[in-house]
Amino acid sequence: MNKRHDHLFPGMLMLLGIVFILTAARTGSATDPSDYLDLDRLGDRYGEVAFDHALHADYAACSECHHHTTGEAPSDPVCAACHQAGDEAESVSCATCHPVQPFAVELIEQKANSTRYHIDIVGLQGAYHLNCLSCHEAIGGPTGCTDCHQSQP
Amino acid sequence: MNGPLSRRNFLRTGLATFCATLIGTHAEKTAARDFEGYHQSKGVLVDLTRCIGCRSCEAACNKEQGLPPPETGFDDPSVFQLDEHGQPRRPDDRAYTVVNRYETEFADHPLFRKIQCNHCLEPACLTACFVNAYTKTPEGAVIYDADVCVGCRTCMIACPFSIPAFKYSSAFEPRIMKCIFCYDTRLVNGLPPACVEACPTEALTFGERETLLRIGRKRIRERPNRYVDHVYGEHEAGGTAWLYLSGVPHDEVGFDMDVPKQPIITYVKDFLAIVPMVLTIWPALFAGFHLLASREQKTIETNHASQEDSHESTGQ
């Protein structure tokens, strides 16, 4: 067992090194707060997904994923009916608006209020998959499960 | 004819009773027809435009309900092929839910549809079951009690969606197998069913049925090019807890559009309302007719006899 780990360790170090170099090479691009994010809020169900934020910032406008929260005009016309440019939010984190447990009892009760407009905000899992997959399909990005997720044992 | 039961009185009372029964059954029937489901009962909105056919829901259901392992893995796309009879898969005693693939001329990519019990507001299986093995719970689930089931399988014929399946491997301990909305393990605790939680694209949305209808209409209104203007299950079979949005006409992806818009029980209610009337009124009515008829006969006979007597006496 130990011997096998001895072989693995330098390999992992090298991999980490490569990731580090790649990340370092991207510093300076206009993204905030970090260029490499570990999407781990759903870590109990999936292995964390290493998300290259800087790479994606090259492909898409902030509003494609962050809607209006970064202060850009939302690209979705449905959102643009109310939210305008400069309508930034305190937090740009996905999980601030897209709950990890979208069907929690208190959220279902809130949605039952017939005067509430936002009754259809998808959960975090749904938000990732719907937004990521639709764009990946459109521009030919990877769409396989294990392209983002580590395969489960 | 001046006895306690004159012909006129009898007919009058009979007619009054008949009318009262008719009015009574009519009022009852109207009240039952207006049932629109339990307040705050739960449902699931299925958005077919979001389903990617990953079958995570099938795997989650299998695990949650402790069903036998599938013949091939949940990542095997060969199950999407039609069987030797040209039919897509159906839920059975080994799987409470299945996802099928449909190729249509309306989309340039395959479409997927999840099938399971729709948990009707007024379930036909429940009405058909003469031992009351089925219950529609206030939470919205249609659950089944194997302890009282006699294995008649009437529910399988009654269901407009052909959902209940019979466990033929245990015919002496009859058991119907169908989706129970994860009632005992999740729904009673306010949790969504296992399939909903597993769906990566939130093609399945769990919530109060009334809210889901509003969400469905909102999606159609905001993106009219994405959806056909119909929420399947809003009225089908009198309304179901599971509702479906689709980007192509629903019949293109296997939905039965001939399912009536009213609860299946409506078709037998009129007949069933007559049964107690026939059983209670008809015996009395016809017994009365018989009594009257035989009484008249008796009177005629008596008169005849007395006339003969008087003839005989005058003859003497």
Automatic annotation (TrEMBL), chain A:
Cofactor(s) this protein cannot do without: heme c
Signal peptide range in chain numbering: none
Gene3D superfamilies attached to this UniProt entry: Cytochrome C3
InterPro entries associated with the record: Cyt_c_III (IPR002322), Multihaem_cyt_sf (IPR036280)
Residues reported to bind heme c 4: H136
Free-text remark on how the cofactor is bound: Binds 4 heme c groups covalently per monomer.
Keyword set, alphabetical order: Electron transport, Heme, Iron, Metal-binding, Transport
Residues annotated as binding heme c 1: H53, H56, C62, C65, H66, H67, C97, H98, C132, C135, C145, C148, H149
GO molecular function: electron transfer activity; heme binding; metal ion binding
Name the record gives this protein: Class III cytochrome C family protein
From TrEMBL, chain B:
Binding site for [4Fe-4S] cluster 1: C51, C54, C57, C199
Region (Disordered), start-end ranges: 68-92
Cross-referenced InterPro entries: 4Fe4S_Fe-S-bd (IPR017896), 4Fe4S_Fe_S_CS (IPR017900), FDH_Electron_Transfer_Unit (IPR051555), Formate_DH_Fe-S_su (IPR014603), TAT_signal (IPR006311)
Coiled-coil positions: none
Cofactor: [4Fe-4S] cluster
Binding site for [4Fe-4S] cluster 3: C117, C120, C125, C159
Chain positions recorded as [4Fe-4S] cluster 2 binding sites: C61, C179, C182, C195
Cofactor note: Binds 4 [4Fe-4S] clusters per subunit.
Pfam families cross-referenced by the UniProt entry: Fer4_11
Stretches assigned to the 4Fe-4S ferredoxin-type domain: 42-72, 140-169
Subcellular location, record wording: Cell envelope
One Gene Ontology term of the molecular function aspect: metal ion binding
Main location: other
Compositionally biased spans, kind Basic and acidic residues: 82-92
Any one cellular-component term (Gene Ontology): cell envelope
Listed SUPFAM superfamilies: 4Fe-4S ferredoxins
Regions that span the bilayer: 271-293
Keywords for this protein: 4Fe-4S, Iron, Iron-sulfur, Membrane, Metal-binding, Repeat, Transmembrane, Transmembrane helix
Iron in keyword set: yes
GO annotation (BP), single: cellular respiration
Residues that bind [4Fe-4S] cluster 4: C129, C149, C152, C155
Top-level taxonomic group: Bacteria
Protein name in UniProt: Fe-S-cluster-containing dehydrogenase component
